[in-house]
Amino acid sequence: MAGNSFGELFRITTFGESHGKAVGVIIDGVKPNLDFEVEQIQNELDRRRPGQSKVTTARNEADIVEVLSGVFEGKTLGTPICLMIRNTDQRSKDYEAIKNLFRPGHAAYTYLSKYGIHDYRGGGRSSARETAGRVASGALAKQILNKNGIEIVAYTKQVGNIIAKEVNFNEIEKNIVRCADKEVAKKMEGKILRTKKEGDSIGGIVECVVKNCPVGLGEPVFDKLEAELAKAMLSIPATKGFEIGSGFAAAKMKGSEHNDEYYVETKTGKVRTRTNFSGGIQGGISDGEDIVFRVAIKPASSILKEQKTISVDKKEATIKTEGRHDPCLCPRAVPVIESMAALVITDHLMRLQMLKEENVLHDVRRSIDLIDDNILILLAQRQSLVAEVAKIKNYHKKFIVDKKREADIKKRLFHHAESAGLDTDFVDEIFKSIIKNSRAIQERFVKK
Fold this sequence. Notes:
The protein is of the alpha+beta class. The protein has 2 domains: 320 residues, Chorismate synthase AroC (Chorismate synthase, AroC fold); 81 residues, Chorismate Mutase Domain, subunit A, CATH 1.20.59. 39% of the residues lie in helices and 18% in strands. Helix 8 packs antiparallel against helix 9. It is elongated and about 115 Å long. The termini are far apart. The relative contact order is 0.12.
């Protein structure tokens, strides 16, 4: 099965199924000697884990991360990092009665049609349980971004028809729906609990903000930053839509309304935009403004209401899903969306840093080339002067070899070499070559 890896320079591969022994992730491309704070990874997993509140699934797993490789004494080794989270609270028997029925909204039919086999227990590989590996790797990506001053914050923007109006980042972790609007959060919670009581589920929208992002992230044409973010978000289970900046509202606007006008900030001298309809990305490249995007989350497919379906042998049937499921996926989707955004931004930050390193290398090489050119010009000038000396020596019938003069030159050059921190053996080799060349030039004039 392809498609289990994500990223170019900061690359992850997730593994495991919802009712298998464990899920996890292998992270490649992490530089050595970086601080590895396992507590922060665990904290992010705690935000994603099931059983954390009355608006999430009752499945109760601690999701304790185990570091299997790539870390020593709190530092990264530069080798692949393997993080594993064991499954400890599966109830596979809940799926036994419906193993031959296709649950509406789930991936069993498509997986079985494509691969000829599927794990019916909780969705297997297609389960949102797989996102634990994403969150674990995203937590490490966040650590890298934090050291570069970049912050990523997501929150529940909408549940059903209830939309948050205010945005206060300090309120997000203070309520169980992870909404940035304190008053609206209470309404969202009530809506979710009423839906849960009905045996149903409800969808919503999660908004995400990337703050302090540098200018230059994104690779035209097919690796535009918004395209990378869209792929990352739509790869998350249960996501059904992505929009950035003005999103679909742009269809109702005129160019004069939508264009983000530029200006120079007086205090910092930075180029800024007066509005941010582009969502912090112009032409696929970050422009330094906040990156703002939204992800539509569908209602959870597993509900307690009876639904119509078909069996594996294509016979009509009815199904009622048992087990423990989220009535609304938004609260637990928040850390997953942050993590996927962190993976994208980290990968492109590394690409930008590599480009800058290449530019610096190019500039340094240009400086070296200039020095080499000057050395050749000076050598040509020296040869011309040596020829003049030869003419004078020849006129006065003096010897070509002047060992005292050569010894004085060597002494002077060695003194300068030591002052400049140059290897005297290296300078001695150069001196011998220059003297040899000088004698050859002067001997030609004497023969004439």
